[in-house]
Amino acid sequence: MSYRKLNKTPEHRKALFKNMLNSLIKYEQIITTLPKAKELKPKIDKVITLGKNSDLNNKKSLFSKLQDKTSVKKVFETLSKRYANRKGGYSRVLKAGFRTGDDAPMAVIELVDRDPNAKLVDKPKKIETSKKDKETIQKSVAK
User: Fold this and answer.
1) Which of 53, 93, 98, 126 maximizes the CB count within 10 A of its CB?
2) Straight-line distance from the first to the last Cα atom of the chain, in angstroms, rounded to the nearest whole number
3) 52 burial level (CB within 10 Å; 0-12, 13-18, 19+)
4) For residue 76, is it within any domain?
5) Predicted local distance difference test score (pLDDT) of residue 140
């Protein structure tokens, strides 16, 4: 079975896909180049399939692949329940045009039935200011 080497050393390629898997699990949708997305699809499908059988051996092997506790936890608690009735095909690759700088073909890889709020995980929530705080700010600005 052949695979794309992507002009990277084996160590670099392994680290690249580990990071991409973690990002895809965290945000449930990422934008990357088309060859990388096509290589990532079988890897994420295998990770979710491992997560469907929740035993200690699978957790350890998944942690050795991902090296991130939050990703492993999300796979076993959220994604495995979401895809319990699905036999495979947990992700899809959509072509997304070409990158402006070097004209590389781009793609969006996303999980099927993804949570649209997942991409807002890292964004800070807006803090509501009370009326008193607004009045104090306006007074200090007026001085």
Assistant:
1) 93
2) 73
3) middle
4) yes
5) 67
Q: Which amino acid is at 20?
A: M
Distance, CA of 104 to CA of 78 (rounded, Å): 34
> Cβ neighbours of residue 132 under 8 Å, at least 6 residues apart?
none
Range of the domain at 83: 10-142
pLDDT score, position 89: 93
Does some domain include residue 31?
A: yes
116: CATH? 3.90.1030.10
Q: Is residue 5 part of a domain?
A: no
Which residues, other chains included, contact 82 with Cβ-Cβ below 8 Å and sequence gap of 6+? 113
pTM of this prediction exceeds 0.90? no
